[in-house]
Hints:
Keywords: Signal. The structure is a single chain. The protein is mostly beta strands. It has one domain: Jelly Rolls (Sandwich), CATH 2.60.120.200. It has an 8-stranded antiparallel beta sheet with strand order 6-7-5-4-3-11-1-13. It has a 5-stranded antiparallel beta sheet with strand order 10-9-8-2-12. The longest helix has 9 residues. The protein starts with 10 loop residues before the first strand and ends with a strand. 36% of the residues are buried. It binds 2-acetamido-2-deoxy-beta-D-glucopyranose (4 copies). The site of one 2-acetamido-2-deoxy-beta-D-glucopyranose has 2 residues, from loops.
Amino acid sequence: MDVFKLLFLGLLLFYANAAPSAVRLFVLSMDHIPTGPSSGKHDSPIWPAWWLAGDDHWNSEFDMFEGYEPDDRAFITLHNWDPELHGNCTIPENITQYYNGSGSTSKRMSQFSPRGTSLGPFNQAGGGVYAMQWDHENFIREWTFVKPNVPADLLDGNPNPNPDTWGMPNAYFPFGKNCNPETINNMYLIFDIAFCGSTATDECKNIVRMQPEAFNETYFLINYMKVFCRPNEQCLTGIYGSG
Ligand SMILES: *[C@@H]1O[C@H](CO)[C@@H](O)[C@H](O)[C@H]1NC(C)=O
Ligand SMILES: *[C@@H]1O[C@H](CO)[C@@H](O)[C@H](O)[C@H]1NC(C)=O
Ligand SMILES: *[C@@H]1O[C@H](CO)[C@@H](O)[C@H](O)[C@H]1NC(C)=O
Ligand SMILES: *[C@@H]1O[C@H](CO)[C@@H](O)[C@H](O)[C@H]1NC(C)=O
């Protein structure tokens, strides 16, 4: 198993390109997740995220984590940016029985981890681990563990952690006839904290300019990030960092 380990923070970009049979496991162990002033929307003073973005319009986006105060859930979202190429990528109505979260029926592609698994409660617990399994042809599943409920095989440096032993995922997006697996492929892996988003209002900009003390908890404290893949597969290619 290849293990890729990150040792620095900022905006990080990796290239993840999956062969049809590829299975990847992205594991992010955090001691602190960014919190701060927020309107609960994309134009918030802070909008932290850990996500996969396509390298071109046709391949889409998977958000493994977005956080909006005061909602202490991880927002986990599949975007299909090109329905003409990939179809509409709908989720079966009965999907909620396959994951322990909420959201996402039919065309609504956002799922939310249980309350208390992000932001303030996550930090107060001393952090936790988010793990996303991308089985390219079949599904994406994600778990959001808060200490002390992190599975042992994510704590002890196990070279082969096994998601099948972790219980129900907190998000689940099946691929197949309802959603073309190629909707997600050739992705960059990104961490970022957006300030006020692309529609920044003057009110928002003033909060960022005038209230620096409100942002003293706006940081990722990353214990490790690892990407696991099958033997003889290349997990990731290239490393680019900025910010
Ligand atoms: C996708 O959805 C749109 C809007 O509902 C619809 O017009 C279109 O026919 C659908 N495309 C496919 C391939 O199902
Ligand atoms: C859920 O819906 C999908 C697609 O509509 C179907 O293939 C599957 O059998 C259903 N599962 C259950 C448990 O009803
Ligand atoms: C779902 O998650 C909640 C909150 O973490 C937990 O209390 C509950 O036991 C979980 N249920 C299942 C079926 O895993
Ligand atoms: C940020 O400020 C708040 C309020 O003054 C304080 O309680 C907290 O400890 C500070 N956090 C850090 C990391 O300095």
